[in-house]
From TrEMBL:
Gene3D superfamilies: Enolpyruvate transferase domain. Residues 18-434 form the Enolpyruvate transferase domain. 3-phosphoshikimate binds at residues 29-30, 34, 175, 177, 327, 354. This is 3-phosphoshikimate 1-carboxyvinyltransferase.
């Protein structure tokens, strides 16, 4: 299932003409993971359309099978999950390997905490470096027991609670993964689970739980957003339509903004307001970015996004916006490097615990290509060239798909090609990325290095 262990170096160069056309990107990764997990907990058969068939989501599909659900692929993006009901997952016979996926690992901890079973979970070298105490600590209050490696890292073992207690928890960091893990455990608990988040984070879990018939109440209070879930609902299987991933669309739109003469439309992009911080920032930067055909599909706002090449202005991105664009900072940094003036992105501590330390790796990506970037505390400051990007460097991607894609987009817009040491991890979230970018360019601008 995982891509080959051999590193796959790629190089991107500037195409002869601007990028063009109307394109689609693969399904939303956050919604895809949840569709498989909630489908496995529902009574009946959930039909999913537009599922992201990236490695991260395929790890979730495999884990759900190991836990007793029937998960089948019917055709491209079309999947069917026969669920076991809340509390009905069965003990896995072997280790659950979540690959490169923080979302899969953390949400699964919540699911496992609520089931009276024993399980062991691991991941690849990147995931085994990422903090898991942020979920295991609150989840222990359900009555589940977790054993982790030193420092709260994977591999971990869990014995789920026989009669899980509902959690009352205030998130110390803005994290949809932690929130979702707590809510998933709360599904199996008797009574009301109450989670308070200091700042709103993506709410796909809340939306999809409602879609399956759970009672979820959300209130904005002076202390933050409070989410209440009534435990032990009967989740009823319901069809799910997965929109295109805005975090993937970001790379096509960024390329269009950066390569002279470009105009690109990405159709059918999810526009949940808790995911669109990058698009708000780009508008502040003066980007020519428009939404057409705005509609609601499968309970999520969706639209077609068009970006046209044009000048960008440096801005200050406030820390409160981070949750709504948390995965978009590496590509925003590339855009900022081409803007007039400086861009300061504030409050990025969470970037240090992604697939790589994205804060330092993003700064290093720019520095390797003759650009100015510095880190002050938790802020990233990028000096814009006001136009030309020099390129010419090789970027270390540290098992991080977003760094690989950001660097390749930079190469499409740079005077000299940009190489990445390993593009293999792009398969985790955006299978077919290089081929799709080349179809925008009308030539093989991204190729083996
Ligand atoms: O809940 C989710 O689906 C995700 C939440 C975010 O992580 P955090 O919750 O750790 O911020 C994001 O970075 C990740 O790509 C997907
Ligand atoms: C942070 C990401 O994913 P995850 O946490 O699921 O590994 C991402 O896709 O950028």
């Amino acid at each position: 299932m995982a891509h080959s262990a051999e590193p796959r170096p790629l190089r991107a160069r500037r195409p002869a003409r601007g990028l063009s056309g109307t394109h689609r990107v693969p399904g939303d990764k956050s919604i895809s993971h949840r569709a498989l997990m909630f489908g496995a907990l529902a009574v009946g058969t959930t039909e999913i359309t537009g599922l992201l068939e990236g490695e991260d989501v395929l790890r979730t599909a495999a884990a759900m099978r190991q836990l007793g659900a029937t998960v089948e692929q019917l055709g491209p993006g079309a999947w069917r999950v026969a669920g076991r009901g809340v509390g009905g997952l069965t003990e896995p016979a072997d280790v659950l390997d979540m690959g490169n996926s923080g979302t899969a690992a953390r949400l699964l901890c919540g699911l496992l905490a609520g089931h009276p079973l024993f399980a062991v979970m691991t991941g690849d070298a990147s995931l085994r470096r990422r903090p898991m105490l942020r979920v295991t600590q609150p989840l222990a209050a359900t009555g589940a027991s977790f054993w982790t490696r030193e420092g709260g890292r994977l591999p971990l073992a869990v014995r789920g609670a026989a009669d899980p207690l509902p959690l009352e928890y205030r998130l110390p960091v803005a994290s949809a993964q932690v929130k979702s893990a707590c809510l998933l455990a709360g599904l199996c608990a008797r009574g009301t689970t109450r989670i308070t988040e200091p700042e709103p984070t993506r709410d796909h879990t809340e939306n999809m739980l409602r879609h399956f018939g759970a009672t979820v109440r959300v209130a904005d209070t002076p202390q933050g957003r409070v989410i209440e879930l009534e435990g032990q609902p009967e989740l009823a299987a319901a069809p799910i339509l997965v929109p295109g991933d805005p975090s993937s669309a970001a790379f096509l739109l960024a390329a269009a903004l950066l390569v002279p003469g470009s105009a690109v439309t990405v159709a059918n992009v999810g526009l949940n307001p808790l995911r669109t911080g990058l698009f708000a920032t780009l508008r502040e930067m003066g980007a020519r970015l428009t939404v057409t055909n705005a509609r609601t599909e499968g309970g999520e706002p969706v639209g077609d996004l068009t970006a046209e090449y044009g000048p960008l202005q440096g801005v200050e991105v406030p820390p409160g916006r981070a949750p709504s664009m948390i995965d978009e900072y590496p590509i925003l940094a590339v855009l900022a490097a081409a803007a007039h003036g400086e861009t300061r992105m504030r409050g990025l501590a969470e970037l240090r615990v992604k697939e790589s330390d994205r804060l330092s790796a993003t700064a290093a990506m720019l520095a390797a290509n003759g650009l100015s970037a510095r880190i002050e505390g938790d802020d990233l400051i990028v000096g814009g060239t006001g136009g030309e990007l020099p390129g010419g460097g090789t970027v270390a991607t540290h098992m991080d798909h977003r760094l690989a894609m950001s660097a390749l987009v930079m190469g499409l817009a740079s005077q000299r090609p940009v190489a990445v040491d390993d593009a293999g991890f792009i398969e985790t979230s955006f299978p077919g990325f290089a081929a799709l970018m080349n179809s925008l360019a009308g030539e093989p601008a991204i190729a083996a290095a």
